[in-house]
Amino acid sequence: MQGVILAAGDGGRLRPFTYRTPKPLIQLRDRPLIWYPLSAMAEAGIREVGIVVGYRAEQIMEGLVDWAPDGVRLEFIHNPEFEGGNAVSVRAARDFAGGGPFMLAMSDHIIEPGVAVRLTGECEHPAMLGVDSAASMESQLSDATKVLVDGDGFLRQIGKGLRRWNAVDIGVFVFQPSIFATLDLLYAREGAALELSRVMQHLANEPCGVTTRDIEGLFWTDIDTLADFKSAYDHLNSAVDLPV
């Protein structure tokens, strides 16, 4: 299995810090944010990771030279439409990841290694989504993409505005290469604004569906704001089972 990490956005909600430093390279406990999902993938046995870049691409490429985990090869993928939706960045990774299943993560999501490990393994469905049914931190819930999962573990609904939900999307996925046909279909309809939540809802409505895997009990958080950053810093300072 290969890995893909999205690092193309401009990190607008962390301005002015991201004016000079791209968000994936902002340091949290002396490590860039992107190091956390990258090291988690390495722990899960993933040895080839594509980094999708756009905003300050050269700076990210230079900044990651010394941060690749031992035995992991990085390949940088440029998304010329990086100001659009995040699904367009996934679509840009077709040549790198189109030959087999791949794990997708966000460069601004802190995930402990066990999250990536839990999402590896066989999956017969076009997509698997990591979810957390026990999310409680403000940084997990403040801007959460909510999900409704049925009793068999299949995704039924996804979106930030759901009134009925029982878990949240943690931003880690496993896709089969068939995802690129779906991305092409929806891109033709919606253009560069295409978001992953739209793609996942489309797949959830298809006969094969989207399966989910609950990472309850494992740590993750999304860093969008300064408050999120502080929350993650405090948690990492108190944790004994996370990389520090």
Structural class per helix/strand content?
A: alpha/beta
Percent of residues in β-strands: 15-25%
| Topology, number of strands | 11
- Low-confidence runs (pLDDT<50, min 5 residues)? 240-244
Number of separate helices: 9
Radius of gyration (Å):
17 Å
| Overall spatial form | globular
Give the helix proportion (percent range): 25-40%
Q: What distance lies between the first and last C-alpha atoms, to the nearest angstrom?
A: 26 Å
Largest sheet: 9 strands, mixed
Order of helices and strands: EHEHEHHEEHEHEEEHHEEH
> Taking all residues together, what is the mean pLDDT?
91
Oligomeric state, counting identical vs distinct chains: single chain
Main traits of this protein?
two-stranded antiparallel sheet; 11 strands; disordered C terminus; 244 residues
Please describe the topology of this protein.
Elements: E1 2-7, H1 35-43, E2 48-53, H2 57-63, E3 73-78, H3 86-91, H4 94-97, E4 102-106, E5 109-111, H5 113-119, E6 127-132, H6 138-141, E7 146-149, E8 155-159, E9 167-175, H7 179-190, H8 196-204, E10 210-214, E11 220-222, H9 226-238
Parallel strand pairs: 1-2, 1-4, 2-3, 6-10
Antiparallel strand pairs: 4-9, 5-11, 6-9, 7-8, 7-9
Helix pairs in contact: 1-5
Structural notes for this entry:
This protein is an alpha/beta fold. It is built from 9 helices and 11 strands. Strands 1, 2, 3, 4, 6, 7, 8, 9 and 10 form a 9-stranded mixed beta sheet that branches. Strand 1, helix 1 (35-43) and strand 2 (48-53) form a beta-alpha-beta unit. Helix 1 (35-43) packs across helix 5 (113-119). The chain is globular. The model is unreliable at 240-244 (pLDDT under 50).
